[in-house]
């Protein structure tokens, strides 16, 4: 089945370019487009996209507010909503971090090459997160929440902490398995446990939680001691 994509951007030229790129792929189908975040919820209800390519800055309702609205809608109807892939001109845009914290699964620069756009849509459509560790570290600077406890209250085991640090460093399950001398299925189980304990729906939200709690700090992310 094709991945259904909704384009959200206030620039018609950007939407047209994205449509051309995506509709050239047999497994991707652009089901609609809107020019402002205010129209996203209605479009999602009518068109049921799998992925929303969401501009960050729009004149009436920005991508941050629109992403929050989609997450709230999914919670209200107790059904999984579409995955949100944020589009941005600058990777250090504060709106990007806030959109990721609100529920977006990743972000993509508008100057990305066509093949990068295509792969990004496929990645988030299959339920994975699109993480850029270096950019996230820059965005996370100074974002530790007041009273944050470094996820001490989450009850992560030593191994789960180690896995989360590697997730924050951008490692895939296969890379984590090789680094820790574990099976891939074991790593998947650890990742699933981490997501449940920190209340994250995917890897992106787990990484955001790690930064906002002070579990990891902006700067080089390295695994801690085994336990």
Structure report:
The protein has 227 residues and is an alpha/beta fold. The chain has two domains: 128 residues, Response regulator (Rossmann fold), CATH 3.40.50; 61 residues, Arc Repressor Mutant, subunit A (Orthogonal Bundle), CATH 1.10.10. 48% of the residues lie in helices and 12% in strands. The chain is built from ten helices and five strands, in the order E-H-E-H-E-H-E-H-E-H-H-H-H-H-H. The longest helix is centred in the N-terminal third of the chain and has 15 residues. The termini are far apart. The relative contact order is 0.11.
Class of secondary structure makeup: alpha/beta
Distance between the termini: 43 Å
- The tally of beta strands, per DSSP, is 5
Order of helices and strands: EHEHEHEHEHHHHHH
What is the overall pLDDT average? 87
The total number of structural domains is 2
* Strand residues, percent: 5-15%
Low-confidence segments: none
Helix proportion? 40-55%
What's the arrangement of strands in the largest beta sheet? Answer: 2-1-3-4-5
Biggest beta-sheet profile: 5 strands, parallel
CATH architecture of the largest domain, by name, is 3-Layer(aba) Sandwich
Q: So, the CATH homologous superfamily of the largest domain?
A: Response regulator
Query: What is the CATH class name of the largest domain?
Result: Alpha Beta
Question: Remind me, CATH topology of the largest domain?
Answer: Rossmann fold
